[in-house]
């Protein structure tokens, strides 16, 4: 089936927004000020105001991932949800992992994947456990029938003003989710991946330009970059590419559920060159590119998507 642009692959939505029309990026999406909106971690996209755009009604696929099998952690919301929707619209079968408390957001994503005629697999569970990380990969491989794309995207971010407020428990959990889990998941995934496969890690501007209130988080995001580069060099001989995306401020529940203090939510994204936060769908084309064969000469790279804040 062709979409209303006249090309593309099997998009059932076909209610193309103006996302593909020329327009001013400054005014394309909401700008601060935003209302304060505290919610408990891990947060829900349905409690966000304004509502984020993950591509539900705006992302159109062009067949770039036809027949691929993808696993995305943190696929229920935010950047992972945008990647999941885009991958399915590009023709991939997609498994998502998330915390059990995020079942509602996850089911919304599974419904959208299935609406594209693709296989959508929901695998809830806490990735701080090594045994679950292995099980996650084997379940995804079993239900998808293989694995071509791994997106290590789940993340924990909790702002603390001072090192004296940062508990060992938080420090440990941030490292478990952001550093250990991608290591465990990737280690298992590589036993199932072959030439042409792609691994994408979600790093951050924090990897290079840490905020004082994100002492633990920023360190983990720097780890993601080193992991990406070292692993890319290691698995190149197998024909597997490894890259990272380094987003700037994106409008996701990670931020309003403790990732930022509420006074920073009010002006979130305002200090970027474009003066607004990114919407998750604006990340999707980068994940699609890195996952696809069009990125055949791209490995060991960290790609910034920051609204003009330089990640280096
Ligand atoms: P998000 O809250 O929508 O996604 C994060 C997801 O991580 C959650 O949905 C949850 O499913 C998952 N997660 C957290 N702890 C988990 C655990 N213990 N077990 C299993 N899953 C767990 O927020 P997001 O902003 O889309 O975050 C996605 C990634 O983007 C994260 O790695 C984050 O560090 C990174 N990032 C976000 C921003 C931003 O401004 N939003 C900027 C740079 C980088
Ligand atoms: Mg979530």
UniProtKB/TrEMBL annotation:
Feature: compositional bias, Basic and acidic residues: 48-57
Which stretches does UniProt call biased (Polar residues)? 10-27
Which superkingdom is the protein from? Answer: Bacteria
Query: Which EC numbers characterise this protein's activity in its record?
Result: 1.-.-.-
Q: Which Pfam families match?
A: adh_short_C2 (PF13561)
Record keywords, A-Z: Oxidoreductase
* UniProt-annotated stretches for the region Disordered: 1-58, 253-273
**Which molecular function terms from Gene Ontology are attached?**
oxidoreductase activity
Similarity section: Belongs to the short-chain dehydrogenases/reductases (SDR) family.
- Its name, as the record gives it, is Oxidoreductase YghA
Organism of derivation? Neolewinella maritima
């Amino acid at each position: 089936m062709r979409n209303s642009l006249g090309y593309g692959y099997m998009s059932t939505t076909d209610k193309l927004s103006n996302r593909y029309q020329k327009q001013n990026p400054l005014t394309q999406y909401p700008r601060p000020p935003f209302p304060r909106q505290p919610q408990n971690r891990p947060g829900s996209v349905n409690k966000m105001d304004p509502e984020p755009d993950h591509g539900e009604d705006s992302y159109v696929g062009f067949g770039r991932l036809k027949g691929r099998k993808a696993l995305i952690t943190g696929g229920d919301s935010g950047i992972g949800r945008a990647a999941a929707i885009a991958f399915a619209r590009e023709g991939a079968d997609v498994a998502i992992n998330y915390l059990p408390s995020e079942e509602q957001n996850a089911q919304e994503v599974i419904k959208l994947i299935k609406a594209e005629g693709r296989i959508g697999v929901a695998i809830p569970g806490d990735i701080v456990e090594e045994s679950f990380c292995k099980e996650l990969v084997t379940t995804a491989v079993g239900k998808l029938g293989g694995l071509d794309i791994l997106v290590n995207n789940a993340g924990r971010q909790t702002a603390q003003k001072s090192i004296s407020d940062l508990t060992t428990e938080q420090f440990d959990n941030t490292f478990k989710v952001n550093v250990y889990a991608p290591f465990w998941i990737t280690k298992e995934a590589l036993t199932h991946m072959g030439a042409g496969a792609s691994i994408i890690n979600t790093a951050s501007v924090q990897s290079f330009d840490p905020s004082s209130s994100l002492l633990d988080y920023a360190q983990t995001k720097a780890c993601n970059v080193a992991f990406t580069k070292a692993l890319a060099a290691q698995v190149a001989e197998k024909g597997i590419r490894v890259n990272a995306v380094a987003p700037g401020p994106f409008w996701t529940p990670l931020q309003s559920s403790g990732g930022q203090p509420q006074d920073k939510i009010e002006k979130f994204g305002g200090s970027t060159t474009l003066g607004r936060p990114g919407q998750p769908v604006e990340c999707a084309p980068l994940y699609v590119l890195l996952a696809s064969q069009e990125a055949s000469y791209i490995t060991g790279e960290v790609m910034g998507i920051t609204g003009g804040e330089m990640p280096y």
